Amino acid sequence: MEHFPPERWFDTINGESHLFSTHTRIVERGWSFDRHIHHNLIELNVVLEGHQHASVGSARYKQRQGDLLIIAPKQIHSYESLEADRTRFFVTHIQVPDDDFLQLLAAENEEHYTSRHPLNKRLMPIIHQLIDALYSQSFSKITIMLKLYQILDTIQQYLKSNMDGKLHAEQDHLAYQIAKHIEALVIMSQQDEQLLHADWSELIAQQLNMSRRHCHRLFKSVYGMSLRDYFMILKQQEAKRLLLTTEDSIEEIAHRIGYENVQSFSRQFTRWANCTPRDYRKLHKDEAFHLTPLQ
What is the pTM assigned to this prediction? Predict the structure, then answer.
């Protein structure tokens, strides 16, 4: 008699992943993209022609043709084209509602995978199939999602195979939880400005049962920036998003991200963007905005 496994009921599995701001682009020498963070997205960036320089956290890479960058959520990064006359790249952002996968990525990701790297060799055929599917006249969402999950599965299997049986580092998990608390703080401060006047870093440390000093040191050791730096980058990005994706007044946006008056917000925003909020809205109104709202 054929052997069957014992009876078992499985929980409902929700695998809703998303591709966001997927595009190919050609840039010339001198192009740059300022530092930014995807708080909930994985970024895949492949150079198809030429080369570019990428900064991820404190690391700097020269990304040549065929090289792949995998950038985990909450990692600050930027790009420059300094030498090549023409650089063409493909980039996509993936939202994955799977904390185990995200923590595995945070703990084991090498970020820069050259064209000779084993993971690059496994992923590149699938990435090119994804690009072909996106450009196909008979565009199929099912085919796109199939390629997406093949990419994620390939990354997961490779990272797991290189763990040598060790558990995720506890400090990576805690740093991830600290970041989630900071993101929640930015959202909550839109409804309660008093939160920003409190010692919020002390509150986060208490919620995670650690000292404030340890909280600061742990976060910086994992993400290469202070709690305040992460907090301010999120506020900056949220301000830009609101300016370009809503019709809210400058004053309304100032209050939503925790400023008591529009003058203070305008001064701070000018330090961030080298232009006033009003000018930023005019200069970039026709551009695609690729940063997701805080949730």
Answer: 0.83
